[in-house]
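Q: I'm building a small set of examples for a reading group on sequence design. Run inverse folding on the following structure and report the sequence directly after it, with nothing in between.
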């Protein structure tokens, strides 16, 4: 499926200070990581969510503290929207004291409370389905939310999980960040049909989000998320979004025209143009916060944690 190419930039409404700060925190955190990689100060790999930050920010207040969230290889924004903890996440990625997983999970494999991320494509959806089955048996209306991309629909585990989720009638929210490219392969070159059609094949409801206005998205999705909770049925929410940054670090294989289009329609530029008097001080504030966080975390000693022997 080719993402729609609108001529006009998306409309946005004024954000609360908290929402704008969170969006910009994620943006500057991701930029900071790319800078650290460029300086040779990080090991391993990382995949930023530049351009897609508004997705977890819009969903954040719709997810209860006791809901379960399953993330993927491009999950820094999901974590920060959940916990607002840049120091713990950066320490994890840098392998420093204070790391959320003692520095052994790195960028992609994070576990904290009811949050789990994995770099294995499609792996989280069967786990989320099992957790949703557990939640269905509990009296409180909780759900499991799993973030996946359009490229993950090439994994057989996705379809096994969807089949079981519908058969078992579990409260599973599948959030699809459809950015139109699977690493370096355009979606139309690797996916036949549509995500909506694939969800329908299992009798699962599907909802598509095309805008970037956090307020509008949240209002649009709030009743649907509540249906997942109380009716105990799965739902696929597909966000039409754009990846502004590379797949990982410097490996962006898209045409220049599409890269420029994604940048012009980036939420960052749209909010900057629409509300400069609110945006500019918030942007400086979060830029400085991330810079201070990087300096403090980089000054910490390396994590020396070792698992206890059985």
């Amino acid at each position: 499926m080719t993402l729609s190419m609108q001529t006009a930039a998306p409309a946005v409404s004024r954000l609360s200070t908290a929402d704008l700060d969170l969006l910009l925190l994620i943006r500057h955190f991701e930029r900071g990581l790319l800078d650290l990689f460029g300086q040779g100060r990080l090991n391993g790999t990382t995949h930023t969510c530049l351009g897609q930050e508004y997705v977890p920010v819009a969903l954040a207040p719709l997810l209860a503290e006791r809901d379960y969230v399953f993330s993927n290889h491009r999950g820094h924004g999901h974590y920060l929207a959940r916990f607002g903890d840049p120091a713990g996440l950066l320490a994890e990625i840098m392998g420093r004291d204070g790391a959320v997983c003692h520095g052994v999970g790195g960028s992609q494999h994070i576990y904290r409370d009811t949050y789990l991320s994995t770099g294995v494509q499609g792996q989280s959806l069967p786990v989320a389905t099992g957790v949703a089955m557990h939640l269905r048996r509990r009296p409180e209306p909780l759900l499991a939310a799993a973030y996946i991309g359009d490229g993950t629909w090439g994994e057989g585990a996705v379809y096994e999980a969807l089949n079981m989720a519908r058969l078992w009638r579990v409260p599973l929210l599948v959030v699809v960040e459809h950015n139109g490219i699977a690493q370096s392969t355009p979606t139309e070159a690797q996916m036949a049909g549509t995500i909506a059609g694939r969800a329908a094949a299992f009798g699962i409801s599907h909802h598509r989000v095309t805008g970037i206005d956090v307020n509008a998205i949240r209002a649009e999705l709030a009743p649907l998320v509540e249906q997942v909770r109380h009716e105990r049925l799965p739902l696929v929410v597909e966000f039409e979004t754009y990846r502004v940054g590379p797949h990982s670090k410097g490996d962006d294989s898209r045409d220049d025209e599409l890269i420029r289009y994604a940048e012009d329609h980036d939420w960052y530029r749209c909010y900057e143009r629409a509300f400069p008097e609110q945006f500019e001080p918030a942007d400086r504030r979060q830029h400085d916060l991330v810079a201070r966080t990087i300096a403090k975390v980089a000054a910490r000693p390396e994590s020396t944690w070792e698992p206890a022997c059985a």
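The two ends are 50 Å apart (CA to CA).
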